[in-house]
Model the fold of this input.
Amino acid sequence: MIEYALKRIVSGLLLVAGLMIVTFFLVRLSPGNPAAIAFDPTRSVDAMSRLENAWGLDKPLLVQFGAWISSIFHGDFGVSYANHRTVVSILKETVPNTLALTLPALFFQLLFGIALGVMQILNVNSWIDRLTSISTLVLYAVPSFWIGILLIMLFSQKLGWLPSSQMISFTANDLPFWSQMGDRIAHAFLPVSTMVLASLGITSRYIRNGLAGIMDQTFIMAARAQGFGHKEIVMRHALKNTLVPVITITGQHIPALISSSVIIELVFSWPGMGRLMINSAFARDYPVIIACTFLMSLFVVLGTLIADLISAMVDPRIQTGRI
Amino acid sequence: MQLKGKNIPVSFVLLLILLISLIAGPLLIDYDPVTHDLGNSYHAPNTGHLMGTDKFGRDVLARVLYGGRISIWVALLSVSLSLLIGIPYGLLSGFFDRFDLVLNNVINVFMAIPQFLLILSVAAVLGKSSVLWIVLIIALFSWMDIARLVRNQTLALKHKDFILAETVIGISKMRLLFKHLLPNLMGPVAVSATLLFGNVILVESALSFVGLGVQPPTPSWGNIINEGRQVLIDGWWISVFPGVAIVVSVLLINLFGEYLQERFFKY
Done:
């Protein structure tokens, strides 16, 4: 296990090195000058070159890359062009907000995805199974931001039940602890539901088809021959075997989850990394864009790595590559 | 459905109908998708304007149809470009062991970065971009799935006897790759390209929704939805109909992809 883990960690580190190169150069090689955008046209051209000089944009790209790498090891990711704070201090405010959205979304998506998949297999080939399959296929084709808009339209604007933007009400600071928690949950409800709905299609289809594949195997036939009922076979014998695929799909699904969080944060004005990134992108705040892209990719590498390690622990055959 | 004794999937027929209505539809409608008609703003759907009108009095149906043309064009071009990059890349990576280590790890790196994020940041840094730039950016970050698929299939096929036999005859490597290996991969590649097509429609609509894709006044499904965001109650039709258009087209494309998958992988 240790040998396998080391191997995976080393390849993960190499991947991170590759990510540093790709994120930095892709963003920096694209045309467009941030100094020209921040530049106040009433001042002289000289002021603009001073700005470029202050941000190090006049140095060769490789030197800038070196400076960026050293800023990572200094733990500050450079200084934002927009408000002259270190990127890390900005990220410290936004990353927890993004996690407050994505982690519950991941949890409920797995919960409902597994529940739906199991329900389909319990009633395999019945109308429930077919109807759920069709609905999940439709869900799979729905853009996440549009789900968000429909939910806002219905629950926030038409019915007025739930807030449609921000994380917390303006008056919430004066409230007692529990009502404050309630306020936070109310604010998170629609964005989290949007993310769950947007990814439920893929999770539940994966689990349904995975379970269906397991139901064809001989050990299930053996259990059936011993006289176990369909429900008991699904719940006690088949479901356990979906664990590894579920861990894998969770790991693989993290990129999509993070991508969708970017746009969902924008729809719900959620003060997280995604909104920060889009705003910085419009302002060409290179240090923030690069740091966000890099950090989100890092989450992806970590997610895949953790998923791989857990699967290898649950099913040791994976370590030797014999599966 | 049957045609000359061959099975035609329903999804394909519906997809054709959709394409034809996107191509021919605008010709049947008198309204211009871009010109303002301020006297007619925010009409609810009625017999004159089947999908209502927007803030500037433009017919939403006309905008959805024209927007659909653009979305489909972007998807078609991006997928073709992804195939042009991904297929040779995958063939080289899978066939020549000495390239594989580097080429395959480049795919790994690209796949680790959430695709939409990369597209978003590059599109943003480029600024207000033309449709062609959007195609380029989407293709630049979409070829990996196809490259990975072609690579894995090539790896699986290259030790088969028919390839060995051709190597023995002394056929040139390029001819071997593109004339003999590639045709054997077309099935899986077709499935993958179809699914990519649906995905690109979603990516483009999200990008245009954020304001970094197709720029108004040129309509695209994503930016029409965004225009309706301010009037979700009094102008619900502006955001709802283009969304329905996205769902229907992506759903049909995915259904067709599933049909192809069953056809090519179940013999």
About this structure: Chain B has a mean pLDDT of 82. The longest strand of chain B covers residues 2-3. The beta strands of chain B are 2-3, 6-7.
